[in-house]
Amino acid sequence: MTLPVLIITYNRFELVLTILEALNKNHYKKVYIAIDHYPRDAAGFNKIEAYLEANQFDFQLKKSVENIGCERNVITGIKWFFEHEERGIILEDDCIPTVGFFSFLEHSKNVEGVLDKNISFFSNCIQHNKRFYLYQSYIPFFWGWYTNRNYFKQFYEFVVTSRLKLRDVLKLLTVKDVSFRIKLIVLINYVSFSYERHGTSWDSLLHYYQFITKKPFFVPSQSMIDNRGFGNLNVAYTHTNKLPDWYNDLIFSNSEIKIDAISESSKAEHNDSVFLNQFFKHYSHNIFILIGYFCKQYFRMLRQGKHKSAFKL
């Protein structure tokens, strides 16, 4: 039995249709679509509904009538998805699955430790590997991923009660096999996004959460998703209007794949340089956000006479 699929979208029905065509070809018929600001292009999504009905999909739509933004649309969309399903695949609208993506899903059903109820999720990464295998890492790219209701419930509870606590910072710093620089940048981005609203998005929360719970992701050694959010279509861009230099070096699994190993190194250093270059171009500025945050919290606690308590909002 194939897994259900959630598609999260905003005003890009051409890309949603491309994803649906891939799902239809590979017999993935159970689909949920969370649409941000549905009235912005209602006519376009009428075509999507027509395609779903014509190809006999089992589908549900979540239509936001206002623009709730990327963070809320992703988080609330996944929450809605798991109100109906135990586990499944999550694709943002610029994440076009390749042949290798479906091959991986079908093959992994027979591989111990993959897609069972105990795994948190797998995602994609960017690196130049000829051999296909899974390894554990804290630094994936969320271009098509899998998770389950139990994992997301725990993460959602963290999101809605999110506070920067000193004990969580200490947990992050004690994670093994990860450079101090990466840990520092994950912390900076979490603070930048959660409290200064300058960060990258909901994935800032997810990276930080994985570190403090010490649960690395399962990551494939090749990308199985063709990300269209870099401006190669005439649509609103997700990331940038220019392809990054490393994008041309991606190896897409566009053919049947075989998993050579479930888990190799647990080090996150595989994605070190790409992670830093892609998400933290303004690193020198963001570190002042972190310093400013801690100074602000410290002086606030001094005024309240709570200088011995943990940092939290």
Structure description:
- With 313 residues, the protein is of the alpha/beta class.
- The protein has a domain at 5-162 and 215-270: Spore Coat Polysaccharide Biosynthesis Protein SpsA, Chain A.
- It is built from ten helices and nine strands.
- The chain has a five-stranded mixed beta sheet with strand order 3-2-1-4-7, sandwiched between helices. Strands 5-9 form a two-stranded antiparallel sheet. Strands 6-8 form a two-stranded antiparallel ribbon.
- Strand 1, helix 1 and strand 2 form a beta-alpha-beta unit.
- The model is unreliable at 307-313 (pLDDT under 50).
Characteristics of this structure?
10 helices, alpha/beta, 9 strands, 313 residues, Spore Coat Polysaccharide Biosynthesis Protein SpsA, Chain A, 13% strand, globular, 5-stranded mixed β-sheet, two-stranded antiparallel sheet, disordered C terminus
Write a brief structural summary.
The chain is an alpha/beta fold. It has ten helices and nine strands. Helices cover 40% and strands 13% of the residues.
